[in-house]
Amino acid sequence: MNKKMIGVIFGLIILIFGYLYASPYIILNSIKNALKENDSEKVSAYIDYTSVRQSLKDQMNAYMLKEITTKEANGWEALGAMMASTLAEKMVDAAVTPEGMTLMLQGKDLRKSLTGNREDTPKERTDTPKIEYRTRYLSMNIFEVTFKNKENDSDVKIIMERDGLSWKIKKIVLPMDEINPKQKLEPTTIPTVEKIPESETPPMIEPTTTFNFSGVQKGAKLESCYHDPCSIARVMEFKLIKQTPTESNIELTLVGGSRGWDAKQIEWNHEAHKIQIQCSITKPTLQIEDQVTIVPLNNSGVPGVLWSDAETYMQACHNYTGDMDAGIQQYGYNVQDS
Asked: For the segment 10-29, what is each residue's pLDDT rounded down to a tens digit?
């Protein structure tokens, strides 16, 4: 092979890797142009609506669960929160449309997006929103973009995932304190009643938390590469031991293994072991034999020594393998070190 051919091949490799790296920025530029033109159809081409709807529902449910569990609430308040959760999911279904997503990504009033109110003033229709963009790679296949509207100081964070040679918006992370769906829905969902004597106050009704165990069914693989070598585990058996409205206890039978960061071959131990996991927004716990670990999922970041436990928990309880900080925020965790 002559030097000219080697140069051509080397140049093609550089072009391919250059495109793979630059591709999310190219897609983001297309989205920005579509937003400036208020072209909802073009924006829609880059959105995975099923995934986005689920991510918004999870955020709103987690927010309302956090609200009801961080303060003392009577039975009526808990009932109202559950009703609000049901209506919030319907509200998300109605709002996650091309027009609603365009409003949301433009950083306009988030309440308009989530309540289906599309009646903008003429000025809002014609003015180009002043948006500031912050971007970063979370991994080779996951890209994060923060849209900040300078006019109303609202942030919308999107998570894009590689889709072949293109990218799709899979998740949208909203500032829930700004939207406050529970507050928005309370006036119409919580009935006005006469004061009830304390002895007759209905018992506390616990809100339901939905966990997703699809990522740890038989045959699934768990992987953590915080340190070299990477820690690998294959699920041999899944058991749901106990389930309540707010917690789920599962047991996994695993076969462990490891591989180097750059290696493809996995060295398996061939000896199965069991772990118990308590899926709980307030007390996420892993137990291996007699060792019990409460995983401190909070905005301060997970300690490196517990990173593998945190990744295992998030995949087991939420089928989540993305950025840890984004996942903690998405599902509403605020568990401090014990």
From this structure: 888 898 888 888 999 999 99
